[in-house]
Amino acid sequence: MTTTVGSATTPAWIPRGGEAWRDPFDDYRALRDEDPIHHAVVDGGDFWVLSRFQNVFDAARDTTTFSSAHGLTHKPGDDPETLGLAAPPIVMLDPPDHTEFRRLVTKGFRPRAVAELEPEVRAFVVERIERIRQTGTADIVAELFKPLPSLVVAHFLGVPPEDRYLFDGWTENIVAANARGNALDAAEASTNLFDYFGRLLERRRVEPGDDTVSDLVHAGLDDDTEVMRILGFAFTMVTGGNDTTTGLLGGAAQLLTEFPDQRRILLNHPALLPEAIEELLRLTSPVQNLARTTTRPVTLHDVEIPQGRKVMLLYAAANRDDREFGPDAEAFRARRKIAKHLAFSYGAHHCLGAPAARLAARVALEELLARCPNFTVDAAAGRFAPGEFVRRYESLPFSADSFM
């Protein structure tokens, strides 16, 4: 939003959620152009907001100066100690602790391991799309974009197929409750999830599988703190790996509807899709913002950010910065060559699940374009989910054969 004082209009950052997510991009542009090191005052607290690509990129890579160990939101009291976490989750670790734990979980997300999941993903996507084609219309989020990421996350965590109906229900309740900021609604599902993974962890001690939980168990993480870290990793995968991919797919469907010339390029040249997915990631930026905490005073654009202050990294604003991506930065260009973007952050905290998200997006969009080349989504009738950090459609009307 912008605030007007006298005759001057000053850009300001506000928390968003629901309908407020529909079009944050004018405000992002104003922040980039007029106040790139913005001092925000929200709910009685204050913090700093970075919106230009180079500033956000540099901060994301500099974990020594911009620490994740004190929480990832602008809100006070979101640090591991205040939250009472015996073992901080991987997203709240800085190197070298982060590096060591990440080394233990990387194996399952290597390209070969991700590629082995493709037949299962494709079979699921094809079955769902064919079901939609029979009726012609659907809520594409409910039918495909929401359940697909849950399948992928369950696979990497080693949830057996017979248990996935339980996992999907817990995931839905946790993600929805977290988005609404209602911890009580999430409590039962979270307890059930932790109990389940506690049992799965014990099972993997004697029946190891080809999954990340098995990798961690057999890395020798046996004491109580490390067991809590494994459970925390599973919870992070659930909360971070589901709604983000849903956000990417919903935003991609909207952009493919809004830019028919670019869709035609992909229909004529399907081999360009992996490259186009990077462009779609850049423009959708499902994780719109996350915070760090300064470990020393930092001066940017002649503005000093004091030590020990929260700094919000606006990934979504940075990813549309014309200083980095050119004058048409806010348009979808299927052939755009992108050296780097911030949809998965960058550096030490680059998203571990990025290869899996790319796989899910590629397969879903390949099959949609092949089987429903004339599809449209009605973005105006779509509904955005609550939550201040992930921008995603909660529902999105889809027509299988109405593209003009």
Topology:
Elements lengths: L1 E4 L2 E4 L13 H10 L2 E6 L2 E6 L2 H9 L4 E2 L12 H4 L13 H9 L5 H5 L2 H18 L1 E3 H6 L1 H11 L6 H17 L2 H24 L5 H6 L6 H18 L1 H16 L1 H9 L4 H12 L5 E5 L3 E3 L2 E3 L4 E4 L1 H4 L3 H4 L28 H18 L4 E2 L5 E2 L8 E3 L1 E3 L5
Parallel strand pairs: 4-10
Antiparallel strand pairs: 1-2, 3-4, 5-7, 6-14, 7-10, 8-9, 11-14, 12-13
Structural features, described:
The protein has helices at 25-34, 53-61, 80-83, 97-105, 111-115, 118-135, 140-145, 147-157, 164-180, 183-206, 212-217, 224-241, 243-258, 260-268, 273-284, 315-318, 322-325, 354-371, and strands spanning 2-5, 8-11, 37-42, 45-50, 66-67, 137-139, 290-294, 298-300, 303-305, 310-313, 376-377, 383-384, 393-395, 397-399. With 404 residues, the protein is an alpha+beta fold. The protein has a five-stranded mixed beta sheet with strand order 3-4-10-7-5, with helices on one face. A three-stranded antiparallel beta sheet has the order 6-14-11. A two-stranded antiparallel sheet has the order 1-2. Mean pLDDT is 88; it is low at 2-8.
